[in-house]
Write a structure and sequence with these properties.
Blueprint (H helix, E strand, L loop, with lengths): L13 E6 L13 H18 L11 E11 L8 E11 L3 E10 L7 E10 L11 H8 L3
Antiparallel strand pairs: 1-3, 2-5, 3-4, 4-5
Length: 143
């Protein structure tokens, strides 16, 4: 079965650097697949905090993850610096789908790529709300 190639580095607008940790490896000697989902969450929310959009303790709205997925192409292991590329794939009225690429530091080709969708909801109501204009403006920079 053939599949589409993974996105190149140029497809991403923002980068987060992380170093793998000892407990990221599994018994097969590479980073376990579940760890990638934590990296996606970290990259998206770190960008939201850095952009001044997300106040974790009191902000409104908040993003709830409604879908995520990952394709793997090459192993990563401890100790290894990695780079996580972030881009907005789709900007809806109350939702954002992000594309994320996981690269070994300096590598041309992605080791994995994923998608991550947030639906933004009121902190108390937990019902979808339109993205505020300042959020939309900042998120458009990642398209």
């Amino acid at each position: 079965m053939s599949r589409d190639p993974l996105r190149p580095r140029a497809a991403y607008r923002h980068w987060t650097r992380i170093t793998t940790r000892w407990h990221d490896n599994d018994v097969y000697g590479h980073v376990n697949n579940t760890v990638y989902y934590g990296w996606f969450d970290t990259a998206v929310n770190a960008w939201l905090v850095e952009a001044g959009l997300l106040d974790v303790s009191a902000g409104d709205p908040i993003g709830l993850v409604v879908e995520t997925g990952c394709r793997y192409a090459a192993p990563l292991a401890f100790p290894q610096p990695i780079e996580i590329g972030l881009a907005v794939a789709k900007l809806g009225a109350s939702s954002v789908t992000y594309h994320l690429g996981i690269f070994a530091e300096g590598a041309t080709d992605a080791a994995a790529e994923g998608h991550f969708t947030h639906v933004y909801v009121g902190r108390d109501s937990r019902r979808p709300v339109p993205l505020p204009a300042d959020w939309r403006g900042m998120l458009e920079r990642l398209i």
